Amino acid sequence: ADGLKQALSKGTDKAVKNLSKSGGYANNALYRLAVPEDLKKVTSTLRGIGLGSMVDSFEGKMNEAAEEAVKQAAPVFVNAITEMTLDDARKILMGNNTAATDYFHQKTSTILQQKYLPIIKLKMNEIGLVKQFNSLLSSYNRIPLTSKVNFTLENYVTDKALKGLFGVLAETEKEEA
User: Fold this and answer.
1) Rounded distance between C-alpha atoms, residue 43 and residue 50, angstroms
2) 25 and 106 in contact (C-beta within 8 Å)?
């Protein structure tokens, strides 16, 4: 159990470090935060009328917010490892090749979401993302004959950041197996 805990600590640390560095999300083809599917029509229209750089900046800032928030995951993972029971360790050792990631997902998702959301809100406000997002939507919503879009950006960024974290954790787990 101690060896497993040490390996899990190493793996979670690696995943958090990879994602929290500059470009950790943005440069990861699988987990890069892109414009939400619900807004593809909006961004396509904005690119078509010459506002593509605004869309690119918007995506970059979402990734920066995720990179800032992921730093909060390390202590949450340490706590989950500390609280791991012998039965939990057995299930991980006898489980599939992402059993540890599944364990962390079950034990930490709610806590991580609670920690991420205020950081993402704060970071997006600091870097002007909320203002930029509202400007993007406002620009789009003024275009005649388009349907109006209503969307919660902070929840989207939080959800995508967590999916990326657990995805990288699963990749790390598979590599170490």
Assistant:
1) 11
2) no
What pTM value is reported for the model? Answer: 0.83
Positive or negative, the CA dihedral 90, 16, 173, 61 is positive
129: confidence class by pLDDT, cuts 50, 70, 90: low
CA 104 to each of CA 100, 110, 151, 158: distance values in angstroms, whole numbers, following the listed order: 6, 11, 29, 17
Q: State pLDDT tens for residues 91-122.
A: 999 999 999 999 999 999 999 999 999 999 88
Closest CA to 15 of 167, 174, 117, 134: 167
* Angle between helix 73-82 and helix 99-126 axes, rounded to 10 deg: 150
Alpha carbons 46 and 33: distance in angstroms, whole number: 18
Average pLDDT of the residues in 73-100: 94
**Residue 174 tokens, joined:** 């598979």
φ/ψ of residue 81, rounded to 5: -70, -45
